Amino acid sequence: METASVLLQSITIPFGFNLKGNQIISCRHFSKQFQSMGFYSQQSLKPIHNPSSFGLSPSPLRKTARTQFLSPLKCSFSDISSSDSRNPLLEPFKNLSFDSVKSTLSELTPIKIVKWAAIVSLGIAAIKWTVNLVFNPFFWMYFSWSWLFWPWFVAIALALYGLYAFRKHLIGEASIVEQLAIVNSVFTWLTLVPPAYFNGYLEGWPLVFFFVYHYFFFFNVSVRKRLYGDYYGRPHDPMWDVNPPKWYRLLFCVGVMVGHWLAAFEAPELHRIPGGWSNVGIWILIIVTLLMQYNSTLYLAKYSEKVVVPTSVVQFGPYRWVRHPIYASTILLFTTYCLAIRAPLSMLFVVAVCLMYFEQKAKLEEVLMIETFGESYLEYASKVRCKFIPFMY
Q: What φ, ψ does residue 135 adopt, rounded to 5°?
């Protein structure tokens, strides 16, 4: 078989070779060879010269027009390594020589030596500290405690971001998302964090008032959307931006925050607060508070230009009972919260803080209203004597 593999073969006639004894040997069956003998005599054939190393004589059985060599075997692997192959790991050391190392060392200065020594030392120290920390059992024990205190991480992160957004709000660069972050951080630290700190968990009224506070303080935004189709404030006369001094406003904010923490401290455990029909009065106060805030804002916007600048004295809706129903609804909201978690003493403190602040602000607004509307506002003030609490104050 090895001898036959180096010979030429044809597609139509059997291949063979002639030994020196003039005997034809074929690899086909005898019958096939016999059938093709007549065909051979009619073809113009050329002798095939076999290599002399096999000791073979020419054989007149091959046709030169349709012959082909056996295609060589192909392999995807080579036993010979290519000199052009490159190893990326060895690239930095390709041009490395004794002279290059010598020139690099000769260029070193004491400052470079100290610098590289410090870098290597810090790297070794960092690796050593990391390895010791990973294999320290006390680290994993303390780390597991973080799963118990994760709400504090969230609350502190929200507070820090709220302070950052508030700083941008003071310079007029806060986006809508940052303004929402301010509101959410404030309401979280008013309604959720204090009871969670003193109870270790949250349930019931703190969660309810977290959403009630959002709903309450977004009424003015919804009224602006109803009137103008968007949530943005309109430019107006700054004369109507009535505010007490900054330190007075800061004291008011601190007082409200302290009042909510005192309420959470005074209140019983959340699971001991009764539910069911005993809270019907609380729900009625919540509904009254929300309706008072919404109607007051809506009536004031109808008789105001750009929601801020009043065009006439409003004497309808909640303004028939008190002269400042928006401030009254805010006081009622804080009062309802304290009543819901059963903290009456803290309720008195929060009411006192609100009355001191809103009294000062109401005086500034009434002076401006008298200057603008004169006798009509004085007549209204004589009819509606109470500022915040109907029939009382």
A: -95, 10
